Fold this protein.
Amino acid sequence: MASRYLEPRLERASRRELTRLQERRLRAQVAHAATASPFYKRKLRAAGVTPARVRTLADLPTLPFTTKDELKENQAAKPPWGDVLAVPFSEVLRVHMTSATTGRPLAFLDTADDWRGFYHSYARSLYAYGVRQADMVMAAFSYGPWIGYWSGFYAAQDLGCLVFPVGGLTTDQRLDALLAYPITVLGCTPSYALFLAETAAKKGIDLAKQTKIRITWHTGEPGASIPATKARIEAAFGAKAYDLPGLTEIAAWGFECDARAGLTHVHEDYCYPEVLDERDRPVGPGGRGELVFTSLYRKAMPLLRYRTRDVVQLADRACPCGRTLVAFDGGVLARLDDMKKIRGIIVYPRRIEELVRPHGGVDEFQIVFRRHEGLDDILLRIDPSPALSLAERDGLRARLGEDLRTGLGIRVTVETVEPGALPRWDHKARRVKDERTEVPF
Ligand SMILES: [Zn+2]
């Protein structure tokens, strides 16, 4: 079934072929970074690394890690770009910003080839979802400085799809467009997909029946890899929803394929993944750890062993699709930066979402970490569906409290607000608030 793959030779390459390709690219990247990037010249020299001695993937652990804080400090110390940049300024084509919630965002520069690599690997993902040249694609995002849907837009164009720019349109105008044009593919954050669905329902529009959407893809948040969130999006649009994890600094690095086996494949010809335990040792199949990427294609800012702060689990099974690319079980399972400690128990907001979303009566929610009567406490505010009676809201609150207590191993205070009272999100949602003045870890 060759039509399943955009690049069958690569996507089904033998491990030997892939390793050979990765090692050739690794040598070129290390040599390039060591000679052309002042940041890496200093860093590699300080670590005692001679580029000529990095020959194979087994030599990778001799290279120092790169962190986001380091890149931010570098840009702050040498504004505006820092000195990671490894090509002349005249050669950069695009700049994007990471979507930082605190502080100044990191600016990331790409050459024309870097940019092509970013969106071409993305196109491979869209193809794996089943997107084809005959599709009409709406990428519903603000056309702001974030790379996620810009690259999705170019990726759809790369496949020859009819692409519809809707950056300046309101949600109402986007809904009108979905009804008026034969749009078959929609890309947006999972939060925005749910907001679109909620707005449509209020207007009496049945998106599943009245639009031609057959595929939706989601990035910027892990929602589409959370089964209950994904099911909710799929039911609202009558379409198949796919998760696309990515990082501005690395690539649109992964995709779940049309086999829908819960596995996230990695474009490992573009970025080489290591999954490391808490002592920075590689985990085996089935093991969980922090994802660390080495860019194998970007020349403007060629990151080596970049700590993503994302937790993934190396798959211990092959995907039925036949791809040989390395895969993770269940997408990004947690962000280390989102970790909260409550009375000695580690809690990730993603886990709370996993427990909340199966409750159909919850339209929106907010998680508040607070200090209540001298103790750390989690407050979950739920915005109930307007269709629920007061008695049903009470029942929902009790069931959720019970599910959270069992699922997290800690008691959670659940509060209902008036329907529609919590904010809705057209980009990445900010559902988590930490009101504690100091975080005890
Ligand atoms: Zn697959």
Observations:
- The domain at 1-338 is CATH 3.40.50.12780 (Rossmann fold).
- The pocket of zinc ion is lined by residues 257, 259, 263, 265, 319, 321, 323 (CB under 6 Å).
